[in-house]
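Note to self: keep these together.
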Amino acid sequence: MPRVLLVDDDLELSSLLAEYLASDGFDTETAGDGETGAQRALEGGFDIVVLDVMMPGIDGIETLKRIRTRSTMPVLMLTARGDDVDRIVGLELGADDYVPKPCTPRELAARLRAILRRSAARDNGAADGPLAEGPLRLWPGNRRATWHDAPLTLTGTEFSLLEALARQAGQVVDKGALSEAALGRPLGRFDRSIDVHVSSLRQKLGTRSDGSSWIETVRGRGYQFVRDDP
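Structure:
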């Protein structure tokens, strides 16, 4: 049973969501403020955190920062509908995805399952050799990555996105396919989630010897992981 930490100061909504998630197979605990939420998330034992952006005191953005200083555990943000600024900032800081409020419990449960599917280790692949592309090595079975032989710290969504690009290195992968692979959902209209995650990956990978990016934008089509010159 996946363990979920729901951090939201709206106690009535938290109780409603927790009750539904429990009936849908999730072991859910709640925290009513960011300080408590960050502390409990970092104590371990949870598989994923659902984090509301708008909270008094330490808001969701600051709480996410605290979690990301020590953990890459999956984090799903609850954002105000239409609030693109908080949404993009959350993704830039390492949130795996977001759900606009108000959301239905069913939608939240579906999004949680999609993230957990992509973050869970796949036992059958754990012993397989790495997916290698240039200086990149990915072990999908245990979600481990290295870059130029040094450990590469990635969120679950970043790993899935980089894996999808690396498996088709040298080829353009459209954003819709990347959204399905990394987020487990169709790409919504005006949805910039994939763009923000790609921006984060570019920062972590740095540039090639000629100063160009390892992940190239193909305008109007998608992205491609650039292959090393033979």
